Records
---
Amino acid sequence: MTHAAAETSSRYRPSAADLATASPMIEIRDLVTHYGKREILHGINIEVRQGEIMVIMGGSGSGKSTLLNALLGLLRPTSGSIRILGQDLNAITDIERTKLRQKMGVAFQGGALFSSLNVLENIMLPLKEHTRLDRNTMRIMARMKMQVVSLAGFENLMPAELSGGMIKRAALARAIVMDPRILFCDEPSAGLDPVVSSAIDDLILTLREAMDMSIVVVTHELESAFKIADRICVLDKGHILTIGTVDEVRHSPNEHIQNLLNRRAEPEILDPDEYLRWLTAVNQ
Amino acid sequence: MLDGLGDRMERLGRSAAAGMAEFGLGAVLLAQVMFWIVAGPRRAQPVRLEATFERCMEVGIMAVPIITLMSVTIGMMLAIQGIYSLRIFGAEEQVVLGVGMSVVREFGPLITGILVAGRTGSSLAARIGTMRISQEIDALSVMGINPVRFIVAPALIAMVVMVPILTFWSSIVMLTGAGWYISLDLGMSAGAYIDRLTEVVRVGDVMHGLGKSTLFGVLITLVGVINGAMVSGSAEGVGKMTTRSVVLSICAIIVTDMIFAFLATRS
């Protein structure tokens, strides 16, 4: 067993029994979404429980970013429901949604740090907007989160002066500054070298341990998914292929999943009529 | 041939619909800003004063050098043209009337509006466009921070406050530049120039110019924000929409100016 693997296995992981009895934090029922006339997600059902790390995996165009946007309330579903902490995301008032969002943290793929603010100001922003704490307390809280993500000492740097790994850390610090109950991470390891990527995975595991939050990670990085996930949901063309533990997914008999895990390209099946319609743009 | 005509009509219809949608979006944005100014403090989410002051600095104070330079030049140019034209009728002395009225009612607001559209409207569109493609706007939404309150309201308040102030400054500088040339060319003393100016320019003329410039400030902000919010793709999209924002702002300013002048001269 490698050192990294040994370290990962020594970390806290909730058992299947723990998860079965934990309260649901996110409940997605029969979720259907469209972009224009095109249906992207076709009746998705997922449940994420307290303290669970759920990894949503899939190839390009599988619908994982669309699912994340729907979960964040950035995309209104056509039908179905998303309940977060017991509240239907699309049936609550604006004020209720604002309050609910204070219990959710999001680390975007590119960080989405505000370029006009330095790192500390970026991390302090949710506190400034949603609390009446004095400035010194906010600074202390933001510095504490910077310590958690190993970014202490970089308070005054601007986002443009940060490396890729530092941007991800700063984004995570901002996402957890309000002590959310649910954390969403969009491609946390994308674009990072393997060492930094592994450090970010460790950080996600540490956050779960320290703050007992539920974490939803959208990624297509297999190694990262296997390292951090309690359960993995594999999406393909807007359908769920499987939801299960790392071992269940690894040993799934599903051909698409095995192709994804083994990086095997799937042959493109071209319908001649469909191709002709696309060429001549009949439906556009 | 009929097919071609049909296509052109369809494109025209689509463009008209898109244009109307932009108008509608502008009205919604304006209403939302008003809402946050009034209801923000009650929801414990007031419009950020710090950001509003920053925007005021950017829109107003930092634009003073270029506005001053352009205004003094245009003031002198008006005086040169005015004297040249009136000399034909031997009425050079009347140049103060022409310069005074045209500067306060037209050139001050128009030149300031065009310069602010080029300088601040473009930067607003570029900033919002960049924030959009780097997911900063999404980040605000998911943090429970309303992007209109956070970004648009400070910019709009700054424009509504600073564009009339800049216009007032621009008019004074233009009149100073014109006065300087007139005193050189016609030998009119500064005192006589100011006396003549106060005779011909009424408070109503000044208010006409300032009222118009307030409207220009609102237009520049809304056009900049809408174009910034429509950015898609990459940096190329930001450049495209920034250019569109400047062109549309200037067109909107000139058309509004004409309508305003027409209505004001009827009453």
Note: Residues 127 and 228 of chain B are 7 Å apart (CA to CA).
---
Amino acid sequence: MGTSMVSRNQHFKPPGFALRFLRFFCNPELLEDVEGDLVELFEERSRSSKVKANVRFLVDVLLLLRPGIIKNFEINTQLIHTGMLRNFILIAWRNALKHKGYTFINLFGLVIGLAASITIMLWVEDELAMDSFHEKEARTYQVWRNMYQTSGEIVTTPGIPQPLEFVLEEEYPEIEDVTLISWQMEKVFQIGDNSSYEIGRYVSPEFFQVFSYPILLGDQNSMMSDISNVVISKRTAEKYFGTNWRQKALGQTIRIEDRKDFMVSGVFENVPKRSSLQFDWVIPAEEYISRNDWVPSWYNGGFGIVFSLKDNKDLLQVTERLEQEINKHTNYENDERIMLQKFSETHLYSKIENGQPSGGRIEYVRILIVIAIFLVVIACVNFMSLATARAGRRLKEIGVRKVMGARKVSLGQQFYIEAFMLSGVAVLFSLAVVWLFLPYFNELTGKSLSLNVSNIQVLGTIILLTLITGMMAGSYPALLLPSFKIIQSIKGTLKHSPGAILMRRGLVVFQFSISLLLIIGTLVVNNQMNYVLNKNLGLDKENLLYVSLDGALFEKSKTYKEELLKIPEVKNVTTTTGNPLDYGRSTSGASWDGKNPNDVVEINVLTAGDDLIETLGIELLQGRAFSKEFNDSTSYLINEVAARIMGYENPVGGNLNVWGQKGKIIGVINDFPMASLYEPIEPLIVRYDPANTFVAFIRTQGNTYEALKSIEELTAQINPAHPFRYKFLDEQYEANYKSEMTLNSLTRIFAGISIVISCLGLLGLASYTASQRSKEIGIRKVHGASMLHLIYLLSKEYGRLMIVAFVLAVPIGYYYMNQWLMDFEFRTELNWFLFVIAGIVAFVVGALTVSLRSYQAATVNPVDVLKDE
Amino acid sequence: MSKNSIGEFEEIVMLTVAVLYNDAYGITIKKEIEERLKRKVSVGAMRTALNRLEKKGFLSSEFGEATAVRGGKRKRYFKVTPYGKTALESVMETRKQLWDSIPDVAFDFKFS
């Protein structure tokens, strides 16, 4: 019977959901036998009727829902706390509405602080991501050439002897692919009547293996195999072949520089802005080398070289062997060593000092990160100090909550929740602000940043930012406010502990120190940039434009010059081998009397035509200029630095041998900077060879517009194949300082923002003081205190704090700005005057804020504040 | 006594547990009460009472051995503790005293 019962019972099981429900709510201690009892009953009942048993089972389970049986859910309720949470949010909301002014100050400060920081973070992210899209980014290296000078200096150049390419390919099994990369060039593309300048580079066929520029058309392996191939960007293809370029582009002929026809063998995707190499075409380097027999030499550097290492190969081994590779092939004639740098770091660590990368753009990235952090912090400081100051208004609430049994922890939670809510709202607003202002910021910085919230990284950062802001802003009030005594709280009299007062003062000092630092920074950068841009360079860069002698202009340069001079607005014309303010053609192959043959001295060599000195506005210090009346093919001009290096007592008439041409120095010209003002002025030799110059410099007078119009007409007439292009020397010069200019405008904006945020905080604190001391003010007024006296009384504390902030900010600012300036060879002095201005600006703005609020407090009718006690 | 007073239902449960002696677990107690008092008792009500009595120390309990009949769940057997017995006795004593104190005439309904 027993066995048959068991087997039968297995067919009748109590309803599972009821059992699960029972297990869910029943106290685990009781569960086992309660469940057993129910099952036993069920089995018994189901013998008569299964349906009835089921129903009765369910009823029994429901009847078990009573206090003695239900398990203790207390642990869970503590975690969830939904009721309390709702209450906190409601109270926070009501408080925000009740004190609209404070809420606004808090929110506004946070919003602009956060918006500025988010914008900076986007910029920083973009900078750091430069060139990171290349698949082999982690093992792609740029080759540098360090030239050790006898003076002890190391001149570093990316121009590498081209034969090194073969050495790398053949003797280094660790290396996967090597590519030559020429400097960025502009060439005229011609298809039928359609012609314009396009930028691009000469590269090796392996270029597309080393870098990840997607190929849209053409065969990656063969498209660079012929020296008459050209591979163009999608943008260029669309420009010349229309929207259905995919069908038409391949195999088409483009005439380049009106010299040779090239066949389009491939199209690549437009180069992203996050690529430091920008180009719309590439042509096999072989094409360039075949026309320039100076390139395949161990003594010249015509190309940059970039290579990718094989996976899992150690760079160190390569570095060691590679270092002396040039010396090995030149018999150590000049000490030239190879240095390697990760390609993706060349953008940010572009400054190379003593043969090693030493910062560069990364410094600006760091400065801006620090500014971003500062801005968020000072906005949070506002929140903190306002929340503590406002505590007076929340005292009764805190007291009542405590009487009702709120623990410190839950009061703390309340203030955290308020802070998180506010920071959340602020972040949302600031995202809107960023979205609105990003186009202007892009214009300012020349970037194409976008706020892509769907990007996990961006979203994560924003959420993190919200949390950090909430934590920073909420921590102090959350820890401080709940610790007030109940009696004090309910009475509404609040004596801040000395610690709290000190803290609040500290926060004000901190805010103003940062604002002062930013103002000082702005003034110094601004000053230096003014100096750089307006410095008397020793060369008159105003009203000077230059035209590249392309195509027919080169052959007819003499006619061109003569015709140019007939234009009334043209004053002088000369031709050279390049822009003298940004010049990089140099030699170590010059010799003079008394030079130690073993010495290596790198000297710039500029080749020029007639009228150089008049046109460029430089000064002839000794001797004479080039002249048609003499045969000047072996005459040289040198600058003062070169004269010093050569050491001639009387340079004019001294022997000078350049590139094997023995000649005489005929004059000394003044120094002008040929690189940036970060560098000392380099020595210069000027040769006379009008037939071998490529750039015409034209000095205009009178109406520039008229001048340009006439010059354009003339140029088009002589050289119809090329579109007319010109540049102004001063604009080009300014373009060299683009990142400094950007830094300049950015610091100006951010300094403004920081002082606004700080003043908002100050405004809040001044209100606090005023309300704290309202009775005192009332009594003083009744006793006849004057308005001015009261304002002074209320403001003097903040005045003192600002003086402390000034004292703190000055040495820090002095130290860092001095360091920044030290990078410039040519710099302004750090003027004490700038610090005073910064101090006065901050002080006046701060004092205005405080006294405005103090004035308001001082004008209150004493009856209003004294009527109740 | 005031602190650990016993309600009527509790008293019945305890007495039933004592009656059942070695076989007092949920179902038997329930059935016994239902049989003797002629009234329905829910598992919930009874469990709560048992639980409360055990907390007060009037009952003690221990698990029996697992059986296949109850879905593998063990039975919890209850016993009245000496303290429980005292409590029951004091209830009875009180009642008895009360009964004894009732004047004879009170229940003599002849003259009413």
Note: The first strand of chain A starts at residue 140 and ends at 148.
---
Amino acid sequence: MADIEIHSLMKQFGAFKAVDDVNITVNDGEFVFLLGPSGCGKTTTLRMIAGLEMPSSGRIAIGGRNVTFLRPRYRNVGMVFQDYGLYRHLTVFGNIAYPLEVRRLGRAEIVQKVEAVARTMQITEVLQRKPDQLSAGQLQRVAIARMLVRDADVFLMDEPMSHLDAQLRGQMRAELRHIQKTVGVTTIFVTHDQLEAMTMADRIIVMKDGEMLQFATPREIFERPATEFVATFVGEPQMNILDARIARLEGKIVAMTEHFAVPLDADWVARNRVADLVDQPVRLGIRPEHIAIREMPDADHRIVAELYSFEPTGAENLYVLQCGSVMVTTRSSTTETAHLSKDEGSALAARFDPNWIYLFDPATGRTIAQAAGSDVSREDI
Amino acid sequence: MKQPTYNMESPAAPLVQRNWWVYLVLILVCLVNFVPYLWVVMTGFMDGASASSATPAWFFTPSLEAFHYLIVEKGIMKNFFNSVIVSLASTFFSVTIGMFCAYALARYDFTGRDDVSFWVLTNRMMPPVAVLIPIFVTFQTAGLLDTLAGLVLLYTAMQLPFVVWMLTGYFRDIPRRYEESAMVDGDTWFAAFRKVTLPLMMPSITATSIFVMILSWNEFAFATFLTSTQAKTMPPAIMAYSIGADIRWNVLGAAVVLITAPLILFVLLLQRQLISGLSQGVVRK
């Protein structure tokens, strides 16, 4: 068990910077996720921590020990690979015992340890089988068992669930989180699935193009995204982003989109100095659950739009609205919207909750103003 | 759990009986290939008179006259063991060296890798006869003429491109993950290679070795030119019995039996590995 410190880590392949200036401190026992689209450098970062790739520059320390350029075997990390990396020519027992045999443990001790971990992972019945006789779920369990069997300082997992079907993935999420917390070993998990990261992580590192965009708790990532990319990458369906312009309308500061004005919260405008941005273009962000809809427009629900498509998902309904060239997705509970029309083309009125409006800089993508509702000074957060 | 007793079959599956003509074709192909060889083997067990008789007979009294002549009078077993030594040694060296070359080409990215890889292939494109004279001169200068070491050296060099080419493809099919996973688990690179990659490569290496061994065993042109008495292998030795005005057919037949028998036995013993090795990478999971 150990903490991990990564300092200005950089990896270049030729002229291409795969990982650029990554700084991370992971506490002992923490479950940290590297989240990002494919090719964002998250796997390269993980491989550098494992020692399978050598950094171009920077420093990696595990438990205070500088391991930057050490070979994998001197780092004492356990790893699960995307395609599991199980040996076809060995039985499941042989696979799990492999790291112990490398360490020249006694036969009795090996058997005892493998059987103990097999019980934890519920794979006792398949110990004598070969990997090609196992299902995807079992392979996954064997790979995790092989990681757990050693007393590794750090666990590294490279998209271990990407080959599982959705149902199994849901089960494994809860189980893996439970195991990680029980074993208490510092774990870094690479994924491109925001749901996995949001549900299992203590903290998430969002990466894009080799750069670290944000390192925070899932809640903070979700409610106070550092950039527009983070805001849209996390959450399903993703945050609506509209091109807008800050304007003064009837003495109030509003955000003007191409077809309608969005009223803003006066306190929030003052605190974030939105008035300074008058006449400047911004990107306005709002999550689908923060748009309320009803049949007829009123004082609050002023945005009139046409229903573009209706997507029921069971407990919730997704309404995709079209207003001129602007499209927004809204999400509301089925009971609340039971009376609304579900026919494409019918007119609806919408209201953007001023508490949950984000502003992003169109040039840099950085967040200009976090939503008022996410303010940490508020009591309920 | 008890297996269900009914037979599950897709309605689209062709009935087995419909394929009878496949067997007909197979039998025909086997006959065309096998009958001439059978005839040669039979001739080897005939005595001189029946072998050269104008009316060939299917039934005759077997005789070891020809084998006696070859083994006792001509001492062909010396050539036989020369062949065994040369082909085993050159197979061992070319596969061992080629394995590491192939591994490097498959796994590591280095400047000029593709050029090296292509150059290796071009070595197979050149007809061997084109370099016969230069090699003869080289061997003469180096004192390697008519030595087993010279032949082993030459065959190793000749087979290396083939080995490298075959094994590079097979190594590429083995995911790097296996070695990486072993290295993270605490192994050195070489231990990972030996304990993880090699066992997975074994069928492919066996298949390649069989090919290389057959090629070395049958090599004729260089063996004829570079050996005379001490290091002469089977192919040039047997050649001597097929030229001349009065060919003794039974002796030639016996010689053919001696040169082909080891290969046939060898392939029969290893055919399972040969087939699984050749299909490696073809059948993907």
Note: Chain B is about 70% helix and 0% strand.
